[in-house]
Design goal:
- The complex is a heterodimer of chains A (429) and B (303).
- Chain A is an alpha/beta fold.
- The longest helix of chain A has 17 residues, at 212-228.
- Chain A is built from 13 helices and 20 strands.
- In chain A, strands 8-9-10-11-12-15-16-17 form an eight-stranded parallel beta sheet. In chain A, strands 3-2-7-18-19-20 form a six-stranded mixed beta sheet, covered by helices on one side. A four-stranded mixed beta sheet of chain A has the order 5-4-1-6, with no helix packed on it.
- Chain A folds into two domains: 6-56 and 379-400 and 410-428, Roll (Urease, subunit C, domain 1); 60-365, TIM Barrel (Alpha-Beta Barrel).
- Chain B has 303 residues and is α/β, with parallel strands linked by helices.
- Chain B has two domains: 11-131 and 287-298, Rossmann fold (3-Layer(aba) Sandwich); 133-283, Aspartate/ornithine carbamoyltransferase (Rossmann fold, 3-Layer(aba) Sandwich), CATH 3.40.50.
- Classes of the chains: A alpha/beta (429), B alpha/beta (303).
- At the A-B interface, helix 5 of A face helix 4 of B.
Chain lengths: 429, 303
């Protein structure tokens, strides 16, 4: 990669991985972070310049959980449009779930997704299916998938319920240092459910998913991870009980990690109001107590990463009867602004913690080498944002193909200024 | 995203004044000598689920007031061909509907429809959620026997979890300061049901619940819904059937109601269903008057 050097000048660098928080200029060269120096020492002349005055300069953000819908569901999203939304949201890397059509359960599809023809604007790391067709019957070829570029395996959306199969998946993952990602939901107890179980589901006459459907599976998976000495990653954790299980397991030294979505730390099931499907997701929005527990888990270190679960759907898939509507919302462009607005400005979490949850945290979870840090010699992925900029989110302007978000019209404080991947500016506001 | 301002979607969205106005109008309606308030209006009955009394009742009510009605059912229309609810709503509106009366198996379906089409929607029952016209006709029935709703002890017995009638009634009665007691086995009357409105309690002991009741409202039990539950049919009958013996716990002037259809020999003993305290037939008759009042109100044709 021979590219013109790029100087990011005048900003405040926050790099949690190297414990750095101070005013520094950053020089990117040959796709790597070349130098971090005191402001004004490096001269711009002869180099491209990004003015970061008043801004935070952070490692390129990483999203562990997105659905880019390719192959097979290009009417919802493509790898090109989804990664354009990622860039606009400050994400320099995304990990794409395998519930495509066909399911990404092979090295061929894993490679196809990463091919230059897909025109990904940011780094794309496939998460391959853990079982063939995500049918929960037979494990996929983990070694071949890893070789093809998969960073984890998961049957996201179709939890692995069979005990033996889950143990086998964890053992196979452990041999290859490949995390197994579980969408923790005991679907035997959630059939026909379209939201969280509680007063709101009773009022609306909708069947509700009990918290235990999540926490029971998380507890089981933790026990299996201990037994098999493997790494279990809990996708989009949403209940206080599951979070507490993760907290205890971490104390006991078990290799468990967890991510939470912006919607699970900002919204509750009451937001559904009168059947608004923009608030229908899986796991469902939970109670205020669960939401508050997520904030606590973000603050105390139990949660390793904020992930969006970006799940684009077309109008006709979402604007239907609540029980028939697709689960999920888009989230790439709103995640960082929500985190800054809610976690930093409201709950007073330091910015470095938010950046950790969006960069070095996720890099560690999936073992993404040379990412999630601004240490010299690592990949030149940088996210620059203005933490004080006030703006209003307009979903109609989204780079995503879909518009399904409950955050349309929300006022945010904090906005992405530029996203740089491998030394190249892929988004500038 | 709030829909037509005069849509009737749920009893929780009505004020006490609005409910009283509908009840007053309903009392004045005479199906034998109806005022031609809806002459020239087109009312579409959009039924995605089978119904006898609600559909017929709305149809008689609309026709009595001079409106033209058309019935669209899921199996005899484009719905079967996979047309979306919003598209069906637009089709019906474009054909000239002035109001849509909808029955649908999914909770919330009328809310979706009303957000996208410009004519009022009347919810004739949506999933497990609400059945506001039933709650209004029940209120009309109760108030023809009791001076006022405030302070009454209204017992709702049976499968509360699956009942849109229970939800609509509890939400309406609570607004008037009535005490609502949901009663049935824990599977069908979960504790969370008491959170629906102020003054609502959940109880699993029928004899205790009946004590001092002014109104005993029995709900239909669908046998298939007891399948897989902890309670058997025999046990349900033994513990929760309303019998003449049990009715002695209630106030002597208590009335017995049922939204129908009654499953004979299950929820109500025949002596109670057909006895002097039963208002079951009166409810059906009041259904037409109530729906005349609802249609007149929604179509802004009240005299």
């Amino acid at each position: 990669m021979n590219m013109e050097p790029l100087l990011i000048a005048g900003g405040r660098v926050i790099d949690p991985a190297s414990g750095l928080e101070r005013e520094l200029d950053v020089l990117l060269r040959d796709g790597q972070v070349a130098e971090l120096t005191a402001p004004g020492i490096l001269k711009a002349h002869g180099r491209a310049l990004v003015n970061a005055r008043g801004c935070i300069v952070a490692p390129g953000l990483i999203d562990l959980h997105v659905h880019l819908r390719e192959p097979g569901q290009a009417h919802k999203e493509t790898i090109a449009t989804g990664t354009a939304a990622a860039a606009a949201g400050g994400f320099a890397a995304v990990c794409a779930m395998p519930n495509t059509s066909p399911v990404n359960d092979s090295a061929e599809i894993t490679q196809w997704m990463q091919a230059p023809e897909r025109r990904a604007l940011v780094r794309l790391f496939p998460i391959a299916a853990a079982t063939v067709g995500s049918l929960g019957e037979k494990l996929t070829q983990f070694a071949a998938l890893k070789k093809a570029g998969a960073v984890a395996v998961s049957d996201d959306g179709k939890p692995i319920l069979d005990d033996k199969l889950m143990r086998d998946a964890l053992r196979a993952g452990a041999r290859l240092n490949l995390p197994v990602v579980q969408h923790a939901e005991d679907s035997r107890h959630t059939a026909g459910c379209s939201m969280n179980h509680g007063p709101t589901s009773f009022r609306l006459g909708l069947r509700g998913m009990p918290n235990s459907a999540e926490s029971d599976i998380v507890r089981r998976d933790i026990a299996f991870a201990r037994e098999t000495k493997s790494h279990i990653h809990v996708a989009h954790i949403s209940t206080a009980a599951a979070l507490d299980a993760v907290r205890q397991a971490k104390k006991a030294g078990i290799r468990v990690t967890a991510e939470v979505t912006p919607h699970h730390f900002t919204l509750t099931d009451e937001n559904i109001g009168e059947f608004d499907t923009q608030y229908k997701m899986n796991p469902p929005l939970r109670s205020a107590a669960d939401r508050d527990a997520m904030i606590e888990g973000l603050a105390d270190g139990t949660i390793d990463a904020i992930a969006t679960d970006h799940a684009p759907h077309a109008f006709h898939e979402k604007q239907v009867e609540f029980e028939r509507a697709a689960f999920g919302i888009i989230g790439l462009e709103s995640a960082l602004p929500i985190a800054i607005t809610v976690l930093h400005h409201h709950f007073k979490l330091p910015l470095w913690r938010i950046i950790e949850l969006l960069s070095s945290g996720p890099a560690r979870v999936f073992g993404l080498q040379g990412l999630g840090t601004l240490a010299p010699g690592t990949h030149a992925d940088v996210t620059i944002f203005d933490p004080a900029k006030k703006w209003t989110y307009d979903a109609s302007q989204s780079k995503s193909k879909s518009r399904n978000t409950p955050y349309d019209g929300w006022s945010f404080t904090g906005r992405v200024v530029a996203t740089i991947v491998g030394g190249k500016v892929v988004y500038e506001s | 995203m709030n829909g037509h301002p005069r849509s009737l979607l749920g009893t929780d969205q009505l004020t006490v004044a609005e409910i009283n106005a509908i009840l007053r109008l309903a009392r004045r309606m005479d199906p034998k000598r109806p005022p031609q308030l809806l002459r020239g209006k087109r009312v579409v009955l959009l039924f995605y689920e089978p119904s006898t009394r609600t559909r017929t009742s709305f149809e008689f009510a609309a026709k009595a007031l001079g409106a033209t009605t058309t019935l669209i059912t899921a199996t005899s229309s484009s719905i079967e061909k996979g047309e979306s609810l919003i598209d069906t709503g637009w089709t019906v509106t474009s054909l000239g509907a002035d109001a849509i009366v909808m029955r649908h198996p999914n909770s919330g379906a009328p809310y979706l429809l009303s957000r996208y089409i410009p004519v009022p929607v009347i919810n004739a029952g949506d999933g497990l959620h609400q059945h506001p016209s039933q709650a209004l006709l029940d209120a009309l029935t109760i108030t023809s026997h009791k001076r006022k709703l405030e302070g009454l002890r209204v017992l709702i017995v049976g499968d509360v979890f699956h009942s849109r009638v229970a939800r609509s009634n509890a939400l309406l009665l609570s607004k008037f300061g009535a005490e609502v007691v949901f009663c049935g086995p824990p599977d069908l009357v979960p504790d969370v049901s008491a959170t629906i409105a102020p003054g609502v309690i959940a109880c699993h002991d029928l004899d205790a619940a009946l004590h001092g009741a002014d109104v005993v409202m029995s709900l239909r039990i669908q046998k298939e819904r007891l399948a897989g539950k902890q309670i058997s049919l025999e046990e349900y009958i033994a513990k929760f059937q309303i019998t003449p013996q049990r009715m002695k716990q209630a106030r002597p002037d208590a009335i017995v109601m049922h939204p129908g259809p009654i499953v004979r020999g299950l929820e109500l003993a025949n002596e109670v269903a057909d006895g002097p305290q039963s208002c079951v037939h009166e409810q059906v008759a009041k259904g037409v008057k109530t729906r005349m009042a609802i249609l007149a109100t929604v179509l802004k044709a009240a005299p």
